[in-house]
Amino acid sequence: MAFSNGKNDDIIKRRRETVGRLRVYGMTEAEITVALPKQGIVNPRTRKPFTNATVHGDIVALREEWQANAAESTAVHQARQLAEIQTIKRQAFLDRDGLLALRAIDREMKLLGTSAPERVKIDVTINIELVTRLWNTIEQTGDNPEVVLADFDQYIRETHQLHD
Question: Do 81 and 94 belong to one domain?
Fold first, then answer.
């Protein structure tokens, strides 16, 4: 079992924060290994740059941490966000900041899905002749999709004067 102390944990944490930032910027492991000493991050015992193996280990650990954070349920994220929004809303009411309070309420409604749905107007034109023809074909063929599609294709060709 590896021994861990606070100072060593702080060194690892600082190094991994930098490794993670550089990795997100698109740098390779080798580029990160070269970049760390330029940012003053070296092995405190040897005063030499960290090895490729150390950087690789950091990236593996960071990837696992990032995946665990991403896997955290949406409900957990929503609960945290709701608490943050409610804190802002409370403060807005105490400060008598109506605009901020309304914005917080709006965010809360969007997060919880309690806002009234937006009304959407949809205009539809129905070709009664086509619907009637398709319905009759369905009734005559016993709901055979191949026949219905063939009849639909023929109708389109006839009405638009298309040829094979």
Answer: yes
